[in-house]
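# step 3/5: fold
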Amino acid sequence: MDQMLRERLEALPGPLRILEAGCGRTWAHKLSVPYVLTGLDLDPDALAARTDLDHAIVGDLRTAEFPPHSFDVIYNAFVLEHVRGARQVLERFLGWLAPGGMLILKVPDRDSAYGFLTRLTPFWTHVLIYRYMLGYRQAGTPGHAPYPTYYDKVVSERGLREFCVGNGMSAPELYRLCSYENQRSVRTAAFLTSLLSGGRLPWRHNNLLLIART
């Protein structure tokens, strides 16, 4: 998927003005076309770790201000589930995008079995899973995931489709992704949760990738 995203981005006319909204500690997409990368994040420790940003801004997605049509691309990965008022943030993104701009979102699907379990369990269990099952020893410390989650209804396959249709976005693409294919215990928990739900909660994916144009 990362290769596909790079190809999509490199097909756009440059130089690209890219906003990484909720940028965290890394940018995964090294592009062959010219681009200016702006990083916006609430966590100054995460921003301090970045050496690849042209502009680094400490700020909240719900209150940060940019002039209309400031960016050709807005990239937002695994952030909206941590925001109360995620739909309002998405509306702000549309205002910041230039006409024909590209919105790229990666989010967990709140309506998957994995998303249901995440919403059901307390935050401290998420930290323990990151540390002792996934091996991230700094998990939960400043600048390191996981972060508390809220999962507004728009952070779902149905919610994103409805948002795109309601805002006239052309031909949105939505892909289902799975991050736990090689983690047997997580797959088993997701499968059993789906089974107990009568199949209402899908278990074969936990994440979503949205690519949409304004």
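# step 4/5: annotate
The CA atoms of residues 46 and 143 lie 5 Å apart.
# step 5/5: archive (pending)
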